[in-house]
Amino acid sequence: MSKVAVIMGSTSDLPVMQDAIDILKELGIEVDVDIVSAHRTPEKLFSFSKSAHTHGYSAIIAGAGGAAHLPGMVASLSPLPVIGVPVKSSNSIDGWDSVLSILQMPGGVPVATVALNGAKNAGILAAQIIGSANSEIMNNIISYKEGLKEKVIKGAEEVKKTF
Fold it and tell me: What are the phi and psi torsion angles at 53 (to 5°)?
């Protein structure tokens, strides 16, 4: 069974990060969810990050707002792929501080970064990473994308009927 850790800096990030949790489950991937604050629980961040690869995770999705150090700090300590979700929080500068904090990582410490509040895409990206080596997950992704296509085709047909 493939497994992804979905972590966030605080409970206020959960409404955004729920999209990653939901799509991962829909695609057949086990999800563990936790709060790991880079600034308020640094010891937990270090412990989690250094040992995540020994707990069966294939990827880590880390969501954070404001200064958004969580994804980069996790990536600096873990050998696993890290996908950062910038979260527009109440103390954010329109979310740009979060986007740039996650996006502008130094060489050698990559963090795949999705759009502001783009947790669903983070979940899909994690599934695609896993799917590259897991045919069951790959087939689930193919079916999901086929469903997206069908939804657009049906929408187009409805629009044509209206006009």
Answer: -65, -15
Range of the domain at 105: 3-162
| Longest CA–CA separation in the chain, Å | 60
Residue 110: both structure tokens together: 């990559």
Do the annotations mark residue 34 as ligand-binding? no
- Candidates 18, 20, 80, 21; CA nearest to 49 is 80
Strand ranges of the sheet holding 112-113, from the earlier edge strand across to the other edge: 30-35, 3-8, 57-65, 82-87, 112-113
Both tokens assigned to 91: 């103390």
- Domain of 50, CATH number, reads 3.40.50.1970
Number of domains in the chain: 1
Q: Residues, the chain, total?
A: 163
**What is the model's pLDDT at position 1?**
66
Across residues 87-105, what is the average pLDDT? 90
32 is in an annotated binding site: no
| pLDDT above 90 as % of the chain | 92
Q: What is the mean pLDDT of residues 79-84?
A: 98
How many Cβ atoms are within 10 Å of 29's Cβ, its own excluded?
23
